[in-house]
Hints:
Layout: H1 9-19, H2 31-43, H3 50-58, H4 69-91, H5 110-121, H6 128-132, H7 134-147, H8 153-159, H9 163-177
Amino acid sequence: MPASSRASTSAYATLRRFLECDAAPETAMTLEQLHGFFTALISGPELVMPSEYLPAIWGDDDGPEYESLEDAQEVMTAMMQLWNEISGTLMAKRTFTPLLDERRTNTAGVGWADGYVRGVALRHTAWRPALDDTATLDHMTRIIQLSEEGTDNAIRRTLLPQLPEAIAALHAFWLARRTPSGKHRSPAARASPKVGRNDPCLCGSGRKYKYCCGQPTTVH
């Protein structure tokens, strides 16, 4: 586990186990991709709500098939723990080391960069100023290059040590431009997400919470 990521071991284990099990869609992100994805969402110019980013995580409009409401809550809590840790590390300006899947010895880092690029894609228009800035464009180019499958191993090993600087620079770019009303990190710091009964359900179903996971006897 990388030094920069201190979400509980149980949260990592929960997410890795669920994302790799049969209950998750085959199109679901890996834990490495999820870490990169959340890093981009937290660093970016606009708040992206769970109702929008959860379907991107699953890569499937139907989402996962939880065995129980408790399982769904456990996964969502683990995701929030991961989100909070990434946010805390970035805001504290501590050295940020991406969470890599060391089992993939020849592709470690590719999934993380792919997740980051997917996060940027959810707000590609809003991210445009960062791509128009020479310095941040250089950092973003490194991440994009790393995300491409088939990247030469020697190039990948060169790019990996450059990620912490690139991540910090991109986060700082948007932090400096965020208006007071745009400081949207505090709501994500909750132990679990607060959802109104008429809000979109956090499971990503598109239904209102009260008609979906908000029903005590129903599991989406």
